[in-house]
Design a protein that fits this description.
- By secondary structure, the chain is of the alpha/beta class.
- It folds into two domains: 14-251, Type I PLP-dependent aspartate aminotransferase-like (Major domain) (Aspartate Aminotransferase, domain 2, 3-Layer(aba) Sandwich); 255-354, Aspartate Aminotransferase, domain 1, CATH 3.90.1150.10.
- Helices cover 36% and strands 17% of the residues.
- It contains nine helices and 14 strands.
- The chain has a seven-stranded mixed β-sheet with strand order 2-10-9-8-5-3-4, with helices on both faces.
- It is globular.
- 44% of the residues are buried.
- Bound molecules: pyridoxal-5'-phosphate.
- Pyridoxal-5'-phosphate (PLP) binds at residues 8, 73-75, 100, 144, 148, 167, 169-170, 188, 191.
């Protein structure tokens, strides 16, 4: 038995893997593989159409919101967002809360002025800054809802009149939120919604088409909306895997039900950490992520020993990112509670032997 705590690409529901494999050989009893027929066919148009409508339904989006499946991963959105929303002489506000946010800031600077309203770099991104001001004439305010590497998460939506743009790559569809508050949301699929190679982008129609810049067709959100995410050949298989995961999520009870399970999983792990004299969580308590739990041991030898033990017990992907060290355990939607129970039991057993 393998317990997959990878940060991304990461665990998806078993039934999604099974159904996706069947579709590679015989899609919907057509005798055709999902990989071998045209995207401009009712067969694939139905896949795309259902995926888009499930996103709208699960996130309870209002009619102003357009859902797109685009290429390039979240990193492409780091520049596609300012390319579409930020004029050269205008200003965008950014929150600097981790490695991914920093990359988004770097890209945005190529298109206009960027104001970093606050940063938690001073303490290695171990907390979320609070009490900052967002200039009211900013074209938009960008932040990362969940910092995948550092293990922090924003637990409320910033209160501002400035249009909100969020990178939700690692916590999309993991908790209830008023998604309609956002003018633009993007997420690489490979953490909570599907296979790598596709991005979910949700944009408010009303913020598009305002920049003076000429935008290449493949980078222009309006073109993708107009063509139903089929401006060119979409990543058909990756979109199909998203559809299967979205169906699974709906069947499981939707976002509110998965949030309850996610809170239970993270609660169990953080309670274990808080009760431990050996393992230490690295982030501010009020900013703890429900998706990526980061912790360390005070002795590199013990860290090695615990990693070895995890490997022996089939616990995959628990090694921390090189910028933080220690351990990072990712608890995405498809992670079963049982795996977290086994991991915490292992931590307790390790502690008994090493204190
Ligand atoms: C993984 C991740 C990214 C990068 O995604 P790619 O699809 O590899 O470009 C960006 N932002 C966040 C928050 C992530 O977790």
């Amino acid at each position: 038995m393998v317990h997959n705590f990878n940060a991304g690409p990461s665990i998806l529901p078993r039934e999604v893997f099974e159904e996706a494999s069947r579709a590679i050989l015989n899609f919907n009893d057509t005798g055709l593989s999902i990989l071998e027929f045209g995207h401009r066919t009712p067969l694939f148009e139905n896949v795309m159409g259902e995926a888009i409508s499930l996103v709208k339904e699960l996130m309870q989006l209002n009619a102003d919101k357009e859902v797109m499946f685009l290429h390039g991963g979240a990193s492409t959105q780091f520049f596609q967002v300012p390319m579409n929303l930020l004029d050269e002489d205008a200003l965008a506000a950014y929150l600097d809360c981790g490695i991914w946010g920093t990359k988004a800031i770097k890209e945005a600077k190529q298109f206009g002025h960027v104001e970093v309203v606050a940063s938690s770099k001073d303490r290695n991104y171990s907390y979320i800054p609070k009490g900052y001001k967002i200039t009211s004439d900013a074209a938009y305010f960008h932040y990362t809802t969940n910092n995948t590497v550092e293990g922090t998460q924003m637990h409320s939506i910033p209160d501002t009149v400035v249009p909100l743009v969020a990178d939700m790559s690692s916590d999309i569809l993991s908790r209830s939120m008023d998604f309609n508050r956002f003018s633009l949301i993007y997420a690489g699929a490979q953490k909570n919604i599907g296979a790598a190679g596709v991005n979910l982008v949700i944009a408010d129609k009303n913020i598009l088409g305002k920049t003076k810049r000429k935008i290449p067709s493949m980078m222009d959100y309006r073109q993708h909306i107009e063509h139903g995410s089929m401006l060119n050949t979409p990543p058909v298989f990756a979109v199909y895997v998203c559809l299967l995961t979205l169906r699974w999520l709906k069947k499981t009870g939707g976002v509110a039900a998965i949030e309850k399970l996610n809170r239970e999983k993270a609660g169990l792990l953080y309670d274990t950490l808080d009760a431990s004299t050996l393992f230490k969580p690295t982030v501010a308590k009020e900013d703890r992520s429900l998706m990526n739990v980061v912790f360390v041991l005070d002795d590199p030898e013990k860290e090695k020993a615990f990693l070895q033990l995890c490997k022996q017990e089939g616990m995959i992907g628990v090694k921390g990112h090189r910028s933080v060290g220690g351990f990072r355990v990712s608890l995405y939607n498809a992670m079963p509670l049982e795996s977290v129970k086994q991991l915490t039991a292992l931590m307790k057993a390790f502690e008994q032997r090493h204190v």
